[in-house]
């Protein structure tokens, strides 16, 4: 069975600073969809 997570983060950089993103990666979804990230790729850490 595939695991799909769809998350409207509305500020991915703030979520990453708070450490909430680690919980999502710990779930090891097969597909992860992030909406409303409001960040450019160069503004995010490499691990994202």
UniProtKB/TrEMBL annotation:
The organism encoding this protein is Candidatus Zambryskibacteria bacterium CG_4_9_14_3_um_filter_42_15
Q: Cite a single Pfam family from the UniProt record.
A: Exo_endo_phos
Molecular function in Gene Ontology:
DNA binding; endonuclease activity
- The Endonuclease/exonuclease/phosphatase domain sits at 5-46
In its UniProt record, which GO terms are filed under biological process? DNA repair
Write the protein's name: Exodeoxyribonuclease III
